[in-house]
Write a structure and sequence with these properties.
The chain has 271 residues and is of the alpha+beta class. The chain folds into 2 domains: 7-79 and 255-268, Pseudouridine synthase; 81-252, Pseudouridine synthase. The protein is built from 6 helices and 13 strands. It has helices spanning 26-41, 73-77, 113-121, 144-158, 227-237, 263-268, and strands at 14-20, 48-50, 58-66, 81-89, 91-92, 104-105, 125-130, 138-139, 142-143, 172-185, 213-221, 242-252, 255-256. The strands form 3 sheets. Strands 1, 2, 3, 4, 7, 10, 11, 12 and 13 form a 9-stranded mixed sheet that branches. A two-stranded antiparallel ribbon has the order 5-6. A hairpin with a 2-residue loop joins β8 and β9 (142-143).
């Protein structure tokens, strides 16, 4: 799809569904596309934003809003989402994904396909959720991830354990899980490949880790749902621990990942 060079030909703005690359931040995507869009349309102050952040280690649908479509970003963020979550049971990390190293291990004796399927049934419906401490939630005007990074540095320097109790400072938020489906159980982790990944984004290698039980779970949920927090809660519900080994947003509202553009395809729109 080639875009015309006159932005006025798009009175409602432009929405590009982009398949966010692995180990790119959402801001990385916006910077790349904004640079191309500003040159294409000859506008220095063209507004470009996204409708809902994806974590650096997540891939999938990121809606990039250009021009007047940025006014729709908040409405688009309210759309229901779908994710394919890769979950490793038997351990936790401070970030509840692979950006931080494993900090605690737990038994997996009772984690079977049947136990996971039964546990998931209890998580369908409206509920309250506490966000991960490594998140953009605000506590007395301070971003939670700032507190988390400080605590993590202190624990690393002292050789101690990361203190997860600070999560209790975060307020609970109502979310709604409309459907959960166990897609696979006991399979190897699906490793993701990044295209020119951000070197600042760490990925913990778990290929040699023993004692982990992996599953892939399809999640249909409301705005504001933290899948990393769901992984944490699923592990606790099974008397163990858990973290995300990968995450893919497969749908955002009416936009499906099969229809999303790779980053190079998106940039070609401005060629």
């Amino acid at each position: 799809m080639k875009l015309e060079r006159d932005i006025e030909l798009y009175p409602q703005g432009i929405i590009l569904p982009v398949d966010k690359p692995y180990r790119w931040t959402s801001a990385d995507v916006i910077r790349k596309i904004k640079y191309a869009a500003c040159r294409h349309f000859g506008k220095k102050n063209l507004k470009v934003g996204h409708a809902g952040t994806l974590d650096p280690l997540a891939t999938g649908v990121l809606l990039v809003c250009i021009g007047k479509a940025t006014k729709l970003a908040e409405e688009l963020q309210r759309s229901p989402k779908q994710y394919l979550a890769g979950v490793s049971f038997g351990a936790t990390t401070p970030s509840y994904d692979r950006e931080k190293a494993i900090d605690a291990r737990f038994p997996v004796d009772g984690i079977t396909r049947e136990a996971v399927e039964e546990m998931l049934q209890g998580f369908v419906g409206e509920q309250e959720q506490v966000a991960p401490l490594f998140s953009a939630k605000s506590v007395d005007g301070v971003r939670a991830y700032e507190m988390a990074r400080k605590a993590y540095r202190q624990a690393t320097c002292s050789g101690g354990d990361f203190d997860h109790s600070a999560t209790e400072l975060l307020s609970r938020q109502k979310i709604n899980i409309s459907a959960l489906k166990l897609v696979s159980f006991g399979e190897p982790v699906r490793e993701m490949q990044g295209s020119k990944p951000n070197p600042r984004i760490n990925v913990t290698d778990i290929s040699q880790e023993e004692g982990l039980v992996n599953a892939e779970i399809l999640v249909d949920c409301s705005k504001g749902t933290y899948i990393r927090a769901l992984a944490r809660d699923w592990g606790e519900a099974l008397g163990s621990g858990a973290f995300l080994n990968n995450l893919r947003r497969t749908r955002c509202g009416d936009f499906k990942v099969e229809e999303a553009l790779g980053i190079e395809e998106a940039l070609e729109c401005f060629g």
